[in-house]
Design a protein that fits this description.
By secondary structure, the chain is an alpha/beta fold. The chain has helices at 14-24, 62-74, 91-98, 129-143, 166-184, 196-215, 220-227; strands at residues 2-7, 31-36, 77-83, 117-124, 147-154. The chain has one domain: Flavodoxin domain (Rossmann fold, 3-Layer(aba) Sandwich), CATH 3.40.50.360. The structure holds flavin mononucleotide (FMN).
């Protein structure tokens, strides 16, 4: 199984430890590629919209984005991690996700995404872990992924791994080991099932693209949908 991990922080803190515990449950059968933000995607999207116009290769950050995208498309399981920063995912994670705006379903989603599985790991001191996970989930679901599992933790006391109580560490470890065990039982030779909500989004966008294509058959996103056969009978899921 191929796993690609995108870490929303470079710090080897609590998020890192939780991710390591989760991966430990999968290492024996996984080929793992990891990215650390902001190091592996250091720049903000400047809104030039070159990617939306179909020229993602000309993005000033293409060298970073394409490397991450290749690893995401090749992986069977995607893992995204982030601590909560002011109730949200880290700015570095958001900056990376912005670069993939053109991959949202109303634009040019990658067909591979419809069969992927993903896990989001977030943690916080008191509150914000769930909304941090939602920041990431919003992008993944609009990329076309249906099978998204969220593992969100509240530390409630200490934020330094070495000072967290053994009881709390054991609770978190149990949850992570159980989740990794469930992932291990998945048959990764088969793509994930595309869910009802993803299909609803797909058909709504298909209607939108059909309309846009009638007005302008040269419209970038319409041409992409048409060339994939999605305006006709082909679907990005099996
Ligand atoms: C800039 C910043 C903002 C934070 N915002 C929140 C927050 O909104 N809610 C919360 O519970 N903890 C918040 N925290 C605490 C972190 O989520 C907590 O320290 C976390 O364990 C850090 O993870 P790490 O060790 O992986 O860096 C914040 C920390 C930082 C540095």
């Amino acid at each position: 199984m191929k796993i690609t991990v995108v870490n929303g922080t470079e710090k080897h803190g609590v998020t890192y430890r939780l991710k390591e515990i989760f991966l430990d449950g999968l290492r024996d059968q996984a080929d793992i590629t990891e990215f650390y933000l902001p190091k592996d995607c250091p720049n903000f999207c400047t809104g030039c919209i070159t990617c939306f116009h179909g020229d993602e290769n000309k993005c000033k950050d293409a060298e970073y984005i394409q490397k991450i995208e290749r690893a995401l498309l090749e992986a069977d399981l995607l893992i995204f991690t982030s601590p909560a920063y002011v109730f949200h995912a880290t700015g570095a994670m958001k900056a990376m996700l912005d670069h993939f705006g053109y991959r949202w379903m109303p634009h040019r989603p990658a067909k591979e995404m419809f069969g992927k599985r993903a896990v989001i790991i977030t943690q916080c001191l008191g509150a914000g872990g769930k909304s941090a996970a939602k920041d990431i989930k919003d992008s993944l679901s609009w990329w076309g992924i249906s099978d998204i599992r969220v593992l969100s933790f509240k530390l409630m006391s200490e934020i330094h791994w070495d000072k967290i109580s053994e009881k709390k560490k054991n609770q978190m470890t149990l949850k992570l080991v159980n989740a990794a065990g469930k992932i291990k039982r998945i048959d990764f030779t088969k793509p994930a099932r595309t869910g009802f909500i993803t299909k609803c989004k797909f058909y709504a966008v298909r209607m939108l693209q059909s309309g846009l294509g009638k007005d302008n058959p040269e419209y970038t996103d319409y041409k992409y949908w048409k060339n994939n056969g999605w305006i006709d009978k082909i679907r990005p899921w099996k």
